[in-house]
Each structure stands twice: as C-alpha cells, then as structure tokens.
Amino acid sequence: MQPSRRKWPCPGRRSAKLTVGAVITCSLGIGAWMMALHPLVNRESPAELEALLRAGRQVKQYPGEDSQSITFNIKDVLKVDDVSVVCPPAHALSEAFFHEVAWSGLAVELCGLEWMAAKRRTPPPNPIVLVRDVSRERYFAKRDLQAWQAAYEKLEMQVVEPPMSQDTQLDDFTVLVCLGLAFTDRKCVRAEDQLSLKTWQRVSQLYGMRWLLWRKDGFCSTLTNALEGSSVETNFFFRCWTLPQDMGNLKRAIESGSYPKNQAWIVKPTGRGEGNGIFITNSFSEIVSKQLDGFIVQPFLEKPLLINKKKWDLRTYVLVTSISPLRAYFYSEGLVRFAALPYNGTACHQGPGNEHRCLTNTSINKRFAHISQLTWTYRKLRRHLEELGISSHTIFRNVRRAITKVLLSSEYEFRMLYNKVAPDYRCSSCFQLLGVDVILDDHLNPYVIEINGLPSMQLSHEFGVPIDASADYASTKLGLTRDMLEILYKPPSAAVTVARSLLALRMEATGDKKAKMWCHTADGVKTGGQHNPCLDEADLAELVQMQQENAARGRFVRLYPSSDGEEFDSLVLHSHKRITRSQGDGAKTNWRLHWTATRLAKIAAINSPPE
Predict the structure, then answer these.
(1) Ramachandran angles phi, psi of 241, nearest 5°
(2) Looking at residues 521-540, what average pLDDT do you find?
(3) d(CA 473, CA 476)
(4) Are 438 and 449 in contact (CB under 8 A)?
(5) 562-596 burial, b if ≥16 CB within 10 A, otherwise e?
(6) pLDDT band at 193 (very low <50, low <70, confident <90, very high)
(7) How far apart are the first and last CA of the chain?
(8) Which residues pair with 304 in a beta bridge?
(9) Cis before residue 162, ω within 30 degrees of 0?
(10) What is the C-alpha separation between 539 and 9, in angstroms, rounded?
(11) Which helix (H) or strand (E) holds 439?
(12) Per-residue DSSP letters for 166-195?
C-alpha cells in the first residue's frame, strides 16, 4: 500500500501552532513524508509532545517495501504491559521522540534504543572496505582476499587495498580488514585510535585477541590464570606450561603423580603455525635438555576418537562480535582434518618421522596424501557418526560448550587489558572470525586445542588451482563470509521480541527516568542482587543487539548467550568475583546480563527447533 497523494499537512518552520492531527502525522511520518520529520518534532516541548502522544492516536506506517501497512497505537505502547507494537521504521522517528517517551514503557524504550543504535551504525553512502596486509609477498591477501571481496561486494561495498607503504588514516574506511596485523601496527588501528572511530566504522580484529588467545602461550596463560583457584572444571582444554618460565611448575606436576610415568607430551613453538616445530616425547629429561625458549608443553592425547583408524580433529569457525560481554556464533559447517596414515600412539613419541600419523595439520599431511583424503565436511562426519550410533547433535553441542567456556574464561583478562585503554572501552567497533581447533577423546569428550585468529578463507586447497564455487571447500567459505556479513550489517528489528521475553520474566521499571532500572519481580516485589539482577539502559541495548544478531545468523548457531547458558553460571560468577576484587564492589560486570540473556534464550528456544 502506498500513501495517497494529498497536500503536505505540516506547516512551515515558522508556524506558531500545529493541530493535533498534524503533529501526530509529522512526528511519526507517513510514506514519503517520513524523511522530513526531524525539525518538526524537535520544536515541541516535552510536555506538549507527551500530551499529544497520550491522546491515543493511531497512525499507519509503511515500512520499507512491505505492501502491508502497520497500525501503531501510541496509547497502547505507553503501557508497560502491552507489547503489541511493531517498531516503526528507523527513519520514521526522531531521536527527540524516543528521549521523551522511552521512560513510559518497555516496548517503546527498546524500540528507541534499537533505532538510535541503527542510526549510529548505518554507514555513509559509498562504503569502503580497506584491506591491509604487510606480510611477505601479500601472503594473506593472496590467500583470503577473493572470498572477502565477493562477500563485501554483494553488500555494494567497494574493496580497496592501498600500497603497503601507506599508513591507515582513520577516516579512510567503513570496514578495516587487518590481515595478520597487530593493533600496534600503523597499518591497522591501535587501541587508542579506536576511541576516535565513528560509530559506523568496523575493524576485523578484536583488540587483545592476538596476545590473549591467538598465540599459543597467550592461550595457555589466559586459561591457566582464569581458572586458578576456581571450582570450575577444566576438562575443556589441555593443561599447559610455557617454557622456560613454567619449567618448575611442569616438573612439580609430573612429580606429583598427576600424570602416568610414561605420559607423552606434545611440545609446540609459540610463534609458528601449520605444525612447524612440533615434537612429541615421553621423556621429561629430553624437554629439559633442549633448553627450550618460546615453547608450550601439554599432555598428548594418546587415546583420541578415531575414524577409519585415523586421527582427526575439527576446524570450527566462530564469529565473535563482542568479547565483553560475549556475543559469539558457531558456523554449522567446517572442516574435519585427518592424519594421512593410521594412528599409532606408541610411534608418536619415538622421534621424527611419524608426524603424518600423529598430527592432523593439513599443511603437513598433504605431503603424504591428496587433499581429498585429508578432509571431510561436517555433513559427511554427521552421517558417519549416526551410522555408528553416535549422536552428532550431542557431539556438536558439547563442542560448542567447550568453545564457549574458553571464551567466557578469558573475559577477565580482556577486561583488564581494555581498562588500560579507557575505563569504558569495550572494542565496540571490533569483530573477529576465529578458527577454533577441537579434538575428541575416545569417550567423546571435546577439548579445544588452540585458536587461530586468521583462519584461511582460501577458496581452493592450493594456490593456482582453479576455483569451483560449488565444491565443498569453496562453498563452505563463501557461505561463511556471506552469513557473517548478514549478522554484522543486516540485523532485523528485535525490540518487541525482547520486550515480550522480558515481560515474561516479570521485569518492571524502578527509579525515575534519569536513573531507571528494570528489575525482576517476585510475588509483586521488585528485587535485585546476584540472583535477581536489575538491568540499566546499556544492558537493554545489549539484549536487543544480541537478539538482532541471532535473528540474522543464517547458518551460524548462537554460541552465547544460549538456552543452556545456566551451565556457565559458575564460570561467569567466577569472572564476576575476580573483577569486583580487582576493581571494587561497584565495578559493573556481565553477571546480570548473563543471567537475563540466558533466560531470554531459554524462552526463545521453547518454540524453536534445537540448534
């Protein structure tokens, strides 16, 4: 339905008085008049605007290309317990409208927060995607650029790669894709520079990820420190020690009897990838004699789950749109990577020459077998597991839980790092796609091996090989990049969905509109505290964004917050206690957001298919 052609009802800017009908029309906008509302609404005083809105007028909205008009009843929206409203299109309302009425009801408050966030995040015309890579001979750009370019150009974004010698200027880009660069590099964006970014600019790397989880020694120290002194089980990753500084702790662990006398150990260099420099030994004296510097040591999994007698692991893809508070998504497709030859646990620690039996790195094994023999898709793995009577749904659910525990465990370290930049710094312009490697033991328990902050998006298994977009290798990564950008740039409206769920939790407003909180109610009494937390405006905005991203996730599965998030309560509470101990009881943590988001996800899952 299109608006009828009739005389524009809004008087000129100098007119002294407007009729009620004209103000309602000009305030909320109809069809082609929507874009001209801002000066008119902003001229009304709060008292006048509130009186007009409370008059209970109904107006029709014409959202986007939808042919069906939507009745928007202002009087009903202002009731706390009425969420029948559909949020009007973002461009149909002014910021002044929401500032004056948001305090009156939960649904319209969330509409306002959603609208203002959309306004801040909407990029200007002709968006630019700036790709920076100063690796040797542009290795990462040659490997990954084709996939990213295809995805961004579908959103009508221009992909540009400037000369290597040119530094990045903060006003040069809509999206900055940092390939293999640290935040300290002038070709990327330093943390302190992020404070100057526009709200619509994005950077493809989370500040601190390289040091805290991406590097092997960072992964080791972050998880070890995070869980020290806690009652949280650590059965989702392998305990590790960084050499040479942790040599004494490693010796004490071995002497304590925590490991069998013939325990095999896997030793990895912290600064190398693709399996280079790794060796396996069951001799502690060998580790000592090598006087290793810049290595980590972990117990070697001697009884992995085998497929066709071969060792294998999972390369999973995880999109993190926020690290604190955590918002993360697990891609439903990925790669199963096999060793080239049948597994022999005894041979693994008998010296060099058995890497193609004991390691699953494709870069190593492709020297011994064709790539088609070394990789499966998740679809093929699921079929195989089901044929064996193993629930693939349970396997992948447990894999997702293990990855979630790793990310949640790191929150404290990220918070401490971010506080050095600015008290409220959260890297809000950042996102990052991670490659997370997971292995299962013969009891089907998953363990996170390591995290790669720049997983390969190469569309063929080798440089120079023609690309077949329909092949599994290419189609998985093309779908991955496309779905990732849907989450980042095409979020649907979610305010009313969140409002309904919050009211189902019996959330009610307390305080005045300058210091308002929404609190859970029990038997009609508003409560706060650890088990019935209250939410402020920032929390509400975060809940809306969580739901928006989840609704646009495509083939991603929401990793966190999730409907089984109560399993992570003790982990989040442990982080909460660490933060309050270091920053004081008044420090804001993510506990109350975790508590609410987890229960909202459970409500949403009641009528949804399992993920």
Answers:
(1) -135, 140
(2) 60
(3) 6
(4) yes
(5) bbbbeebeebbbbbbebbeeeeeeeeebbbbbbbb
(6) confident
(7) 37
(8) 441
(9) no
(10) 39
(11) strand 432-440
(12) SPPPTTS-SEEEESS--TTSTTS--HHHHT
The 10s digit of each residue's pLDDT in 100-120 is 444 346 766 777 778 778 877
Where does the pLDDT of residue 56 fall: very low under 50, low under 70, confident under 90, or very high at 90 and above? very low
Q: Letter for the amino acid at 303?
A: K
How far, in Å, CA of 491 to CA of 176, rounded?
20
Residue 333, SS3 per DSSP: coil
Roughly what angle, to the nearest 10 degrees, separates helices 495-504 and 591-605?
Answer: 100
β-bridge mates for residue 439, sequence order: 447
pLDDT, averaged across the chain: 76
Name the strand (E) or helix (H) holding 307: strand 306-307
Note the pTM of the prediction, 2 decimals: 0.82
With beta carbons less than 8 A apart as the criterion, state whether 84 and 73 touch: yes
CA separation (Å) from 421 to 322, 426, 430? 16, 9, 15
Bridging pattern class, strands 310-323 and 335-338: antiparallel
Q: What is the mean pLDDT of residues 381-386?
A: 96
CA 512 to each of CA 71, 410, 518, 528, 596: distance values in angstroms, whole numbers, following the listed order: 30, 36, 11, 16, 22
Helix residue ranges per DSSP H, 239-278: 247-255
> Does the pLDDT value for residue 230 go beyond 50?
yes
Nearest partner of 83 among 480, 392, 507, 449, judged by Cα: 507
> Residue 479 above 60 pLDDT?
yes
Q: Is the dihedral of CA 189, 191, 196, 197 positive or negative?
A: positive
Say how many residues make up the chain: 611
Q: Are 435 and 451 in contact (CB under 8 A)?
A: yes
Point out the least confidently predicted range of 388-397, 474-483, 492-501.
492-501
Check if the beta carbon of residue 322 is closer than 8 Å to that of residue 588. no
